[in-house]
């Protein structure tokens, strides 16, 4: 199975491409914004596609040609304003969903925010609310897109080394989770057809990732 990783140069994305390339059944195509980012992925043996997520749908669709699944793990980052949040976390996600449809790709995995409910929007601080709104509507667009989707809602992301163990369910208590483990959850979701049409919150825990993903 060939996977287009959108946001491959991000912290989760880099872990994900590495894990995919180590898999016997998966191979990665890394979608990046700048050519100078390509060497990391080429050294892993991964194909690359240089595409600006703020560009047009057709460019993203071209990158998605010939792949079996798309993973959206792009983000505007914590140091940008609401304008970039809208352009990347919302519009970029929606364009990627439409590009997948245009390219005939049915499988789509979305890395979202921990809680994207209406209640979470109302309770968010004024600075964080635009991000939650963007993720909320991106998730809703995906669920209505007639794709085989999986939505992953990770807890507070850390750069700690992955433990290989998580807690995953429709609702879990707030906690941290290493980015490395989130990447492993994505791989396990891609390898498990039963995750299609499901979404779950994911935090660090005591259950092996494959078992936790299987039980969602």
Task: Describe the protein.
- The structure is a single chain.
- The protein is globular, with a radius of gyration of 16 Å.
- The protein starts with a strand and ends with a helix.
- It is 40% helix and 24% strand.
- The model has no long low-confidence stretch (mean pLDDT 96).
- The protein has a nine-stranded mixed beta sheet with strand order 3-2-1-4-5-6-10-8-11, sandwiched between helices. The chain has a two-stranded parallel sheet with strand order 7-9.
- It is built from eight helices and eleven strands.
- The chain has 216 residues and is of the alpha/beta class.
- The chain has one domain: Rossmann fold.
- Pfam families: NAD_binding_10.
- This is Sugar epimerase.
- It comes from Virgibacillus phasianinus.
Shape: globular
**Residue runs with pLDDT of under 50 for 5 or more positions:** none
Largest sheet composition:
9 strands, mixed
Whole-Å distance between the termini?
22 Å
CATH topology: Rossmann fold
Number of helices: 8
The CATH superfamily appears as NAD(P)-binding Rossmann-like Domain
Query: What's the total count of β strands?
Result: 11
Strand content: 15-25%
For the record, the CATH architecture stands as: 3-Layer(aba) Sandwich
Mind telling me the C-alpha Rg?
16 Å
The chain-level mean pLDDT equals 96
- Taken in chain order, the helices and strands follow as EHEHEHEHEHHEEEEHEEH
**Total separate domains:** 1
Question: Could you say which structural class the secondary elements and strand pairing correspond to?
Answer: alpha/beta
User: Which class in CATH terms?
Assistant: Alpha Beta
If strands are numbered along the chain, what order do they take across the biggest sheet? 3-2-1-4-5-6-10-8-11
Fraction of residues in H or I helices: 40-55%
InterPro entries: NAD(P)-bd_dom (IPR016040), NAD(P)-bd_dom_sf (IPR036291)
Pfam families: NAD_binding_10
Domain NAD(P)-binding: 7-192
Organism: Virgibacillus phasianinus
